[in-house]
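Recall that a protein's primary structure is simply its ordered list of amino acids. Everything else, from secondary elements to tertiary packing, is in principle encoded there. The following example makes that idea concrete.
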Amino acid sequence: MNPQESKKLENKVLTTLKRHLKTGDTVIAGISGGPDSIFLLEMLKKLPIKIIVAHINHQLRKESDADEKFVENLCKPKSARADLSNQKTAYTRHSQEKFAAATILFASLTANIKLLSQKLKTGLEETGRKIRYDFFQNLAKKHHAKFILTAHHADDNLETIILNFARGASLQGLTGMQEIENINKNSKLFRPLLSISKQQINDFLRAKKIKYHIDKSNESLIYKRNFIRHKIVPLFKEINPNITQTLAKNTENLHDINEFLKISAQNWIKKNSKTTDQKTLTSFDAKSFRLQPKAFQKILLLQIYEKLFGHTQNIQSSNLDEALTLINKNIGNKKKKFGQLTISLKNNIISLI
């Protein structure tokens, strides 16, 4: 990558960042030490904001401690370490915070992901994600951060769409990651690198001679994302070498359609929601609901859920189909779990508790 290309890429990312951030804002930046997150940190350092560099030491590799030290050194910490150990959990809560430069704070969490995964009976990927985002959200709350930033890029988005498609996803799932996304009612996720590729990031770092660490576990095919990255995506690229850019454009179109449906659903909900008792969060007339097209019914349920909880995480197509079967087949006095909600139908009234 020549200097002109590097500058063009830098300006593109900074334009995205400046669209949402202003002077003095505080952000949480998930920095692993890999090329993607290091590139993100390099861009953030160019803005007059306060950066909380958040690093997770998963204790899964012998290099984990070196990765943590590498990221810590990037922040050039100056103040003493605050040990916030909490031995009551399945992992060691070893949260360290240090002021580095005037605008950077370093925070790390050491978590025995393998042990916690066994205790919770969840996969390593799922457990790692939960620990990561819990940590990010706690930091965001503590520091009143405007956003939690991650270094997901266009190639990550391609993998996400393929994974969602394989699992069975709603229209929203097929649009992939969004630039701005609610985690809950209080935290927002910001992914400023979604429009650039992994190759662009690597070329930039190489041209600028910026150091980073490589996570060798990214080569392991036991993880679903790695399998897609190393086995599935190359096959797509044999058909279309520009599959990342093509899919990005397609998902942009799907996103526009989905946004229109979401706005329409929000208007329908405002018009048709009923006064409820204290136990019922919201309720609707089942006859009016059934008059809507099935695709719109799904959007309605998702929007109701997002309105109540700030997200639609872990709601899959199968969950939607089961809920709609209950409603459209008029199965009275029945209940169905729907994420954190319970949907019931009685006397042609849909209640969400």
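Residues 273-352 form a domain with the Uridine Diphospho-n-acetylenolpyruvylglucosamine Reductase; domain 3 fold (CATH 3.30.465). The chain is about 50% helix and 15% strand.
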